[in-house]
Amino acid sequence: MSPLVITILIVSGIGLLIIIAYINHMVENNKLEKARIKADLNDRLRRSTDLAETLPGQLMTPALKLLLSRLQLHFSERMLLLEKGNNTLKARIEELRKLIAQGESIVVNNPPQPILNEAKAKDVRYQLENLHGQLTRCAKEGIIPSSDAKHWLQEVRHMLTQVHIEFFGNLGQQALQKNQPGQARLAFERGVQYLRKQPDPAPYQTTLKKFQEQLARANALVLETSNTDAEQTSELDAGLESLDGDDEWKKNNIYD
């Protein structure tokens, strides 16, 4: 075998190895990209489903339920392209299509969840932040028309305000029930301040007025409690002075 043939064979072998390595690299990259897309779709589908099922009933509307169902359908259909044999996913897609076909008549089964403490308020706020993030990304990707996204982002801000209103109101009422007017005053005062800081306070004027009335009531109770404490302190001082006088009288009798 001539040196030329040997050289050609070596070069061909090296070229073949490079081609095989490149193909393997491309296959591996495609696998990684497919896995990344699946993980992302799974995450977005999970988030949309959690919001649809667990958002407090006082915040969930048929329109929002319908929107979240459409997002779930979108992500599920994209997932099915990657998992064509997933029968569970196929059944879920059919279920979502039936729900969406109901339009504004879609049933909302989310139970109300009273915002009674800071932990619950933070939990619901996290849900709304999650919803905000989902809507923003869907708008950027063209999944939701920009006009619809703008409307829903405003709705999310309104829902967040509702959460604060309910939280401060419940906090104040609980404090009054526990005979803690000072804590109640603080809660209602925070409610007033929060509503006054809203970019558009007009829709909340009725609630603001109610908070102001509750704040005035809590203030009156605080003053009443302070006056009662002061009277009790004065009576106690007078009693102590009287006792001190009796002691002096006793001392005088002893030493006389």
Order of helices and strands: HHHHHHH
Structural class: mainly alpha
Q: Assign an overall shape.
A: elongated
N/C terminus separation: 144 Å
Number of helices: 7
- What is the gyration radius calculated from CA atoms? 35 Å
Largest sheet: none
Low-confidence residue ranges: 229-233, 235-256
- Strand-residue proportion: under 5%
Count of DSSP strands: 0
Query: Percent range for helical residues?
Result: over 70%
Q: Count structural domains.
A: 2
Average pLDDT metric? 86
Coiled coil: 79-106
Keywords: Coiled coil, Membrane, Transmembrane, Transmembrane helix
Region (Disordered): 226-256
Transmembrane segments: 6-27
Write up this protein.
- By secondary structure, the chain is mainly alpha-helical.
- It folds into 2 domains: 1-113, no CATH class; 115-256, no CATH class.
- Helix content is 82%, strand content 0%.
- The chain has 7 helices and no strands.
- The protein has helices at 3-54, 62-82, 87-101, 118-140, 146-177, 181-196, 205-255.
- Mean pLDDT is 86; it is low at 229-233 and 235-256.
